[in-house]
Design a protein that fits this description.
The protein is mainly alpha-helical and 262 residues long. It is 48% helix and 5% strand. Bound molecules: heme C (2 copies). One heme C binds next to helix 4, helix 5 and helix 6.
C-alpha cells in the first residue's frame, strides 16, 4: 500500500485508534482490537488516497475519466481491464501499444474508446494515472463455478449493479484441465505461466504483469488477441505460450488462472 499512506488525517486517526487499543488490559482482546484498528485504518487510507483528476474526472471532451470504466479501485470490469497494482512500467507500455497500433485487440467499441483515450493522454497524465493505480491493492475479479449448463464457454456475470465482482460459469472439469495446462513443466503445448509471471502469477517487474485472479473473460480475450497477433509489440514473449493452444485450452487456462489469489 506504499503510496496510499499517509494522508495527514490518517496519521491522527490511526494514532488515536492505536492509543485506545493499548488502554485495553486484556491481552487477547487487545490483539483483536489492534488488528481491527489496522484493518479500519487501511480502509480509511484507501478511501482518502489522493485520486488524480485524470482518473477521477478525465479531461473532457477527449478523455473520459479512467475510473468511469476501470473503477476508482482499479478492479475494472470484464470488458475493460483491472489496473490495480500494475507496475508503472507495464502500464505505460500498454498505453504506448494502444497508441502505436500494437494493441488493436478485438476491435470492439470498448477497445476503440481506450485507443482514442490513449492517443489523447499527455505523458504527465499517463504518469499520474499509472502511479495512482500502481499503489492500489489488486483484488480478485470474483469466483469461478463449474456448472453443467455452462457449455464450451465462459459465462461471466456481474454479482450486482455496481459490477465490482463477478461470477464466471464454466463446464465441469475445466479448472482441472486449466491447472494442468498452466502449471505443467513438461507440456509440449504451452509454457508454465510461472516461468515468466512469477510463482504466484503476481507478475515480475515492469515487463510481466500480474494475472492471478483476473477476469477469465479478460484473460481469454487477451490470449486470443495475442494468438491472432492483434496484440503484438511487447507481448511477443507470449506468442510461444499461445501458439499451440485451442480456444478450449484458452478457456480452461483463463478459468483456472482467474481462481488464484491476486
Ligand atoms: C470507455 C471505457 C474506458 C475508459 C474511460 C478508460 N479505459 Fe482503459 N481500457 C478500456 C478497455 C476496454 C481496455 C481493454 C482493452 C483490451 O481488451 O485490450 C482498457 C485497458 C487499459 C489498460 C491495459 C491494462 C492491462 O492490463 O493491460 C490500461 C493501462 C488502461 N486501460 C489505462 C487507462 C487510463 C489511464 C484511462 C484514463 C485516462 C483509461 N484507461 C480509461 C476501457 C476504458
Ligand atoms: C515467456 C514468458 C511468458 C510466459 C511463459 C507466459 N507469459 Fe503471459 N505475458 C508475458 C509478457 C512479457 C506479458 C506482457 C505482454 C505485453 O507487454 O503486452 C504477458 C502478458 C500476459 C497477459 C495479459 C495481461 C494483461 O493485463 O493484459 C495474460 C492474460 C497472460 N500473459 C497470460 C499468461 C498465461 C495464462 C500463461 C501460462 C499459460 C502465460 N501468460 C505465460 C510473458 C509470458
Amino acid at each position: 500500500m506504499g503510496g496510499l499512506e499517509p494522508p495527514t488525517q490518517c496519521a491522527r486517526v490511526c494514532g488515536r485508534k492505536r492509543f485506545l487499543a493499548e488502554e485495553i488490559v486484556h491481552n487477547k482482546l487487545r490483539i483483536v482490537i489492534v488488528s481491527l484498528a489496522i484493518a479500519t485504518s487501511g480502509g480509511a487510507m484507501a478511501a482518502q488516497a489522493p485520486i488524480p483528476a485524470i482518473v477521477d474526472k478525465g479531461r473532457p471532451p477527449e478523455v473520459i475519466a479512467c475510473a468511469a470504466c476501470h473503477l476508482p479501485n482499479g478492479a475494472g470490469r470484464l470488458e475493460n481491464a483491472a489496473l490495480a497494482s500494475e507496475t508503472v512500467g507495464y502500464f505505460e507500455q500498454q498505453i504506448t501499444n494502444f497508441k502505436s497500433g500494437d494493441r488493436n485487440g478485438s476491435g470492439d467499441n470498448a477497445q476503440k474508446t481506450m485507443i482514442q483515450i490513449a492517443k489523447a493522454l499527455t505523458p504527465d497524465e499517463v504518469d499520474a494515472a499509472a502511479t495512482y493505480f500502481s499503489r492500489v491493492p489488486a483484488v480478485s475479479f470474483g469466483k469461478v463455478v463449474e456448472s453443467a449448463t455452462a457449455g464450451d464457454r465462459i459465462v461471466e456475470m456481474p454479482d450486482n449493479q455496481a459490477g465490482g465482482t463477478y461470477t464466471a460459469y464454466v463446464s465441469p472439469g475445466t479448472l482441472a484441465k486449466g491447472k494442468e495446462l498452466a502449471t505443467s513443466e513438461t507440456s509440449d503445448k504451452t509454457i508454465a505461466c510461472k516461468e515468466c509471471h512469477g510463482d504466484d502469477l503476481k507478475g515480475d517487474g515492469d515487463e510481466v504483469p500480474w494475472i492471478a485472479g483476473r477476469s477469465p473473460t479478460y484473460i481469454f480475450r487477451q490470449l486470443t488477441n495475442i494468438k491472432n497477433k492483434t496484440r503484438a509489440g511487447s507481448s511477443v514473449p507470449m506468442q510461444m505460450v499461445v501458439e499451440k493452444l485451442t480456444p478450449d485450452d484458452m478457456i480452461a487456462i483463463a478459468a483456472y488462472v482467474a481462481t488464484l489469489k491476486p
